[in-house]
Structure formats: structure tokens, C-alpha cells
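3.2 Worked example (two chains)
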Amino acid sequence: MNTTELQRIKQRYNIVGNSDGLNRALDVALQVAPTDLSVLIIGESGVGKEIIPRVIHDNSPRRREKYFAINCGSIPEGTIDSELFGHEKGAFTGAIGESEGYFGIANKGTIFLDEVGELPLATQARLLRVLETGEYIRVGGTEIRKTNVRIVAATNVNMQKAISEGRFREDLYYRLNTIPIKMPPLRERGQDIILLFRLFAMQMAEKYRLPKITLTEDAKAQMLRYKWPGNVRQLKNITEQMSVLSENREIDTDTLLHFIPQDQESTQLAVIQHNGGNHSYENERELLYKVLYELQGNVSDLRKELNTVRKQMEEVRDLNGAIGFTAVHTENLPTTQRQGKGNVNVEDAIAEEISEPETLNLSDLGRQLVEKALERNNGNRKKAAQELGISDRTLYRRLKQYGLE
């Protein structure tokens, strides 16, 4: 590891810190820069992964060519292929002209794909072809195009887990991961935390002409104990907040604790001593996931059953409406409705049934409606369906349901 070269890089890119993990990441970046090998940067959100591809590009033979940084998670799935690989005129609604896409524009340069784990599977297949052959096809096109682009990717997700879950292609992962670079989380960088705090405090003081804030020794110890789940980005935000809101310019532990969230002491699963050994809650979490999954299935089944009941009730209501049914007794109906001329009036038949003292449920009511209609039409299903105002198919379904086939 060339110490002089590392210091030069840190000064050029305003990188603060001297931890072993940070120095190792920068050293690997400088070693791989002269090559065209693909690089995958792994690290939590907020650790500063975006500086590594810039270092690689600026120290490579491609440094005079174009450099593009693309956040794959911020581009909608429906347009990401067009953004990356371009499109032909008329390829989709709104494609009023041709587009080169990043891989066309960045030919001979470098493309940094941040949050590469968020790429859709179809786009992953296109990217794999570019990595393997340097060839791609525009959206809506048929012509094979060539590009000579160096790809540096970064991710904050567990790629092995994403592969096992089918969210990321294993072959693409190994293509991207030719040279892995791990950016350490802030909690593993020791005294770099204090150095970064001083930098951010000085920047705020100069920018807004404020007295610079400092830390007491106890506050420094508290800063080093905190887990910093948001990493460098969180440290910068908290320093800026204290610079503006704190009346006391010397930050002690009590003041610091007002700005540090107390419910985020760790980004890891809790580990306790159990029967003389370590015990994590990994198994309990998996069990909870299974319970939630089963509960989701039960809710889905219940929703289906509810929809079936609702549909049956609507069909019975339609049957009632088709024959002008109202739940009244025969003595309340006009004489013209109760007396037919040679035929039994439908309203009379229904009123007769309803006037019986026993209470019928919806299924019994529907069954009796169908039975009476078939009786009056001598078993002719077509005429019975017409009388009820329903289709032959619906009547057949009702017959099957009521066991009247």
C-alpha cells in the first residue's frame, strides 16, 4: 500500500479518515483502475460508495472519456431499458425520436451503476449481454450495436440472499463481482468518526458564519459507542443540526443525546447469552415471517369466501327483483294481483310462501323460487329462466347449487 499515493487521493477527493478498512478500499481501487475489469462495491447506505468509481475512472486510461453515475433504484422499471440502452423512434408512446441511451453515449468511458441490486430481471439479462459481448439492442430496434464501456456497480443489499430469492441473476453477479471492494460502515472506522465530525463542523461554521462546535471528551466517547446506522450521511446531518440548533458550542453528552436517536443503537440483530452461549433472534424472526405469510393466506381465503357470499346474495336479490317480490302477506296485495285468469299469479305464490310462520334463509328462499318456477313451467328450464329473468346458464348453476338437477 503506497501511503503517499493514498494521501494524494484523499486530498484530491476530500476523503477524511485513516482506518484500515477505508485505506484498503482505496488501495484496491487504485490497483484495479488501470484495467478494464468490472468492479462491485459493497457497503451499507451512506458509507460513501460513490467516491470509489470516481477514483477508478479518474485513474484509468478512460479518464478523458465520459463518466456517468446512474442510480438504478430511481429510474422507473418501465423506462430503465430505454434509459440505459436507448430506443428507436416510435418504440413506445412518447418516443418521438431516437435515443442513444447511456451505453451508447458513454462508449469508451465508464458507467457507475449505483443500487444495481434494484435492476429488473429483464434489464439484468441485457446488462449481462453487454458485459459478455459488448453488444446491445435498442428498445424497439433490431440492429445489434457495440459499445466499449467499463462498468462499476455498487449495492447495499445482500446479493447472495437476492440470488437465492430469485431477485438477481447469479451469472450477472459473478460478472460484476470480478473485483469486489468493501466500504466499511462508519461504526468500524474508529477515530475517523471524530475527524469527520470536525470536518462537517468546520464546513458549517464557514458556510453560515457560525461559531464552530466542539465535543467534550465524554461526548467523543459517546460518538464512538454509537452504532451510526445511517453512516457518514447520518453523522453529517447530526453535526449540521447541532451547529444550527445548539446554544452551547461545546457539545457535551447530554446535548449530544438530544440529537442522536436512542432507538437506533444497533443495525444488527440483538444477541444475548443463553445457556452459556450466544443466541440470536434469527430463528424467531423467520418464524414470525412464516406466521405472517400464513396469516396473509388466511385473509386472502376469507376475502374470497366473502366475495362468494356477496355474489350469492346479489343473485338472490336479482331473482327477487325479476319477479317483483316484496315480503308482504296475500291479504295486503290488491285483488287483481291475487286472482289470475286461469294461471297462478307469481306474486300470489311468493306471498303464500312468505306468509308461512317459519323463517327462511337466503339459500332456502332462492331454492323455493327456482322450484316454483320449474313447477309452473312443467320442468321447462328455458321458460323457467325467462320467468325468473335470468340466463339459462345462471339457472343451471342455481340448480346445481340447490341439488335440483
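3.2.1 Second chain
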Amino acid sequence: MLDQIFGRKNFINEIIWAYDYGARPKRKWPPKHDNILLYVKEREHYFFNADAVERIPYMAPGLVTKEKAERGKLPTDTWWHTIVSPTGKEKTGYPTQKPLGVLRRILQASSQPGDLVLDFFAGSGTTGAAALEMGRHFILIDNNPAAIRIMRTRFAGQPVEFYNPNGNPLPESPHKRRNEDI
């Protein structure tokens, strides 16, 4: 479907985000990765800044020079990054929340301070949290009332505006609600 929307020529990368947490099936290899597809609107205006990306350690530092080992290497298209800890302070309660570290890396490479970042399926707002932290502007879109409530809580006290084009009231923050499920 993304080929139809953006055009096959605007496909840049498939990133594999690998993690190790959760169920362990006994009759197959455990599925412990997500696929992130990177498309651009216009290939000729695509931005990639490898120098801004936080480097990772070499798996075999003895096979490279001391200087290279100290600098680290640019990540490949397979990223090892743990999930959001179920008991960590980053956890928002949104079931498909992505870790800040994954979104930071994407934004480091694909945007510059002051750029506008758009996330059409914002969920818990991790893209916006990373953008805010890194000096990017952002627009987050989601039609799930639970996502809106979680984002309202996540961005409480931050310079973030909420807008509803339908004119209907946006969901309140969970801490202002009665004891209902989100």
C-alpha cells in the first residue's frame, strides 16, 4: 500500500527493530522484531545525516583500529533496542508504545533542529516526545481517544497545543477522569 501512496521509487529502507521480551513459543522461533518501512515524499529532497546519529560499539572491536573502535560505528538497518520497560518511567500504558531511543535515532538521521515531524499514527506520542527533546516541531495525529488521553498526560506542562478539527471536545487527561479504563 505504501508503494501505491508514495511510489516504489520513494522507498528508502526497511529497518528491523529487534528486541528480546515477552512470550517464548516452543514450536517456532520467537517473533521478536518490528519492521519499520522508510518512504519519502520526494526522493530528491530526502535528508539523511549519518554524522548526527549516535554511534554504537563494534561487535568485534579488535578487528578495527583503536580510533574506529573508540568512535563506534554507524548502525546498520538492523537495530537492537530493548522495548519500553513495563515498570520504567518511560512507560505510558499505551499497548504499542515504541521506545524513545528508536525514535531519537530516526529523527537524528532524518531531520534537523527546527524541522517539522509528522506522525499520522501517534499512539502514545513518542515521536512528539523525541521531537520536542531534540528541538523539532511536530504534528501528531491519532483517532483513538485513549491515545489522545495518554498524549495529554505525557505532554502536560509542555509547550504543546491540542487541536480537534471536528470541534468535538478532546478527551481529558486520565488523571482528571473517574476510575474508567482508558
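3.3 Remarks
Residues 173-182 have pLDDT under 50 and may be disordered.
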